[in-house]
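User: Could you walk me through two proteins back to back? I'd like the raw sequence and the structure tokens for each, with a short line separating them so I can tell where one ends and the next begins.

Assistant: Of course. Protein one, sequence then structure:
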Amino acid sequence: MIAEVASPNSLHDLIFWTDATAVREGILAVAALVLFLVTAPRGRRWLSWLSISLLALSLIPLLAIILFPQPAVVDAGVAHGLGHAHHVQRFFLLASFLQSCLLLVVVCGWERLARAMPKIFIDILRCVMLAMALLIVLWDAGINAGELITGSALVTAVLGFALKDTLGNVFAGLAIHAEHPFEVGDWIQYDANQAHIGRVVEVNWRATKVITLDEAYVIVPNGQLAQASIRNFTKPDSWSRRSIFVVTPYEVSPQRVQRIILEAIRGSFGVLEHPAPSVVTNNFTDRGVEHWVRLFTNDFDKRDRVDGMARDRIWFALARNGVEIPTATQSIRLTQLPAPPLPEPAEARLAGRVESLKRVGIFAGLSSGHLDRLAMEGRECRFAGGEPVIRQGDPGESLFVVLEGSVEVSAREGDGLPVVITTIGPGGFFGEMSLMTGAARSATITAKAESCLLEIDKATMRRVLEEQPSLVETLGRALTTRAEERSTLLARDGRREDPPQPDLLQRIRDYFAM
């Protein structure tokens, strides 16, 4: 059988080769794609790549007409092949149109009213649209799609058995997206191993990808996640609890230790004030009383630093209060080692304290004997860098002299931000007004680096004044002079401070009951 075809290589062949239905479908596909690109949010327009690709593929049959001209007389087989090309072109156009309509409904409609649909669901709907376009084209071509499905049942069963693990991961991924046990950006633990904690960076058809604190890129199959107990450290709230265990001697009251620890970790890096940290007596061990420190942080990715800096604060605070962390009893083997350097003699240490006290202005009138007493009875305290020594507004009755390191002085007015006033190095002092009058702390003092301070408290100062009551007037005048100098300095810098009270000397007498 011979089919007559119009003259080859003519524009007429190119135009009339595509039927009216294909032309309408092409116009609808282009219109739907343009409408999506105009109405979609800028960050979601990339989803149109499949629609654009299908439109481009629909041009292949037309290009074939140009590259391979039709002869004037064509047999029935060639004509039948051209009919198949018609159907291929219609499939691409119809599939592109359905994909664009899907994006209009999901992205421009659904996502404006509810949360963004997960990518895995969009991919499933895209496959459904492709299958629908194929069935429509097969129906128009006179092919019974049901016969194809029946004939491929055996092939489907074989593929399903071979791909059972992959299909299990796919359905597990669908369950994960439906239940939302975690989202991209959450920190999760996906098995009992503490090292298997990471931040979710992607959830796709087959697997979930996480990055651990070791910067390891881990791909976990969705089927494994579906069967595991997942711990989400970011839900339902952004903060998570951290646990630190501290052992102290039985001789020290647990309540005292708990107060020391809570004060130490207050304001530490990453530790939240709400929810408030807490300490409980957890166990009685061979080493001593075990305390469970429970704190909360939003910086889960920096949890090692949060725990470490809290432990540093606790160590310094316990050391300042004379609480020694007991060590475990072990069998040891002695080895002769070089002699360690001799510690600084007590006399030299005491002399260093006396020299530091001589620089304190209000102690200028004290005799050598009184300075020696203050140096001997004063208490050395060590503070970690960044740890507050005293806080503005807190009650106090002691003075501090900087022996080693340096501290930063800051203050705030009302609800404003703290303003750094000055830095005090070795030989400097602060807290004299609280020592002599019991006034509340007027500034916050924070250790800039690991620092050693000498604390002179009210009880020590009282014994000195009881031995020589006349020192009250000397100290009162020195304190008044220093307060006036401080007020003048702050006024010059544009900062306000209440002027020294005229009854300062009487306040000292009343405070020490002289």
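----
Protein two, same layout:
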Amino acid sequence: MFPHYDVIVVGAGHAGCEAAVAAANMGSKVLLVTMNMNTIAQMSCNPAMGGVAKGQIVREIDALGGYSGIITDHTMVQFRMLNKSKGPAMWSPRAQSDRMLFAAKWREMLEAHDNIDFWQEMVTGIIVKDGRCKGVTTSLGLEIKASSVVLTNGTFLNGLIHIGEKQFGGGRAGERAATGITQQLVSLGFESGRMKTGTPARVDGRSLNYNFMEEQPGDVNPTKFSYTDTPPLLKQLACHITYTSEAVHEVLKTGFHKSPMFNGRIQGLGPRYCPSIEDKINRFADKNQHQLFIEPEGWTTCEIYVNGFSSSLPEDIQYKAMKKIRGFEDVKMFRPGYAIEYDFFQPTQLRISLETKLVENLYFAGQINGTTGYEEAACQGMMAGINAHLKVNDEEPFILKRSEAYIGVLIDDLVNKGTKEPYRMFTSRAEYRILLRQDNSDIRLSPLAHKLGIRNMEGRMERVQKKIDDSKAIKKFLAGYSVQPQQINHYLEEKKSAPLTQKRRLDTILSRPHMSLDGLMEILPEVKEGLSKFDHETIQLSEVELKYSGYILKEQELVDKMNRLESVKIKKDMQYNDLQSLSAEAREKLTSIQPATIGQASRISGVSPSDVSVLLVHMGR
């Protein structure tokens, strides 16, 4: 009934879709197995992609040939570049998406791929022989053979939904949980745990009074995520902001004794940085209000996502409290918020390629690894799909360094440190964030994808080379153009910058605080004319690299030092317990994680600099 597949991907959420596409675009024959073909790429929580650090990840996925950025550009209803008031390392693109179009576009692009097959059924186990994964078993008793398997089960592994005192099995509202896999993996020696996440109520937008809310429009000149020719966003839907109040909080408190989070029914750890509304009230008792973002679910629906009002309280309490929110006095609820508890596996049980250490050719990606967020899941899926293909073809794994991508930071953190709560990416997690900006993802990563042989990268490489060449030309023009004091002093005075006393090169003026290339082009027509043939994105990239050249150089020097440690390989059979000079904790952690390089060993929690020195001495370095 089934051919032998190169890669089977279990689960068709954001991780599963990217895993399937990545392996297929490298030439693998892929089977994507999902319990429901109608919920492929479902946005289970908020209908948005990107955000702080997450936007950088989406652009990195796109630069490596993934589809998340393309899908988002085709289906977004609003675009904003966040943190523009801060430095460029913090600028983060975010798009509000049409939930239904997003899923439909993903399915369309998956079905258009001749290397991807589909099967709708629950996977109940994996086939393991001689320590290697050989395929999957299903609820119908089928055995589907493959050279490798990628598990992207999301919140479905023994999923349990909580609404007040009610609880029932499910991986998402209206969908059943997946069973069997956890028990098998535990029997094979894997360590499992429980985590929890939550989602807010959905409401009828026709019942809200937006006159009492603050409008949050999209950018006047919206950009996009993908480096390909995706359509521009010509019209946008507005989001709105409102606030809870002490009256709202008092109503919510009446249900605290029925909260599964407070009475111990939920055992899993929830996300620290995206707490439920009852958790916010409890943890931040001094706050008399909390911000809520009122987000449309799409162009043609009145359904609204109440971002910031995640809750697992009884549905009647949620509704009563909502009616106290300004603008929600006549609200109609579509469905209540809920918490969901699910199984995950400590990611320290994975190699840096996302292959499990206990079972060869088995890969984990997404929330099964303890992460939260579409973007974090999607990038793991992509990397697992790439590496599953490479493993099947006896090639070395594709590993991104911390200095190369946020994706590299995320996977390195997970594998070396593990996580005790749902892991979410932030710019602060990246020590080289001035190098890992959202504007240069294609320059950093597309050459690596091209070298790997990912399909359709040829045209992208031409774009990357043009961007590099144009940026050099822009910098050369700015270095070669000099301005007289009378041309610019009035502008410098407006910006409270010291006036010129003699002719100066424009690139030195641009490096001053509060100077922008857009502003200089407005007052210097010749500069505007000289740069008119270049696109705005490349002009902005060049400006950032000129203004922050000193910081970029310093970070690159740090990267070069760290890369020297990354190049020192550790033998696979290293017996750490024989090295008595290592601390007991270091011996335990190193034996468990089995780092591939000294650089990786240095980032393991519990391994000190002196432990690293012991390793270097032992290795004759």
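The first strand starts at residue 5 and ends at 10.

Let me know if you want the two compared in more detail.
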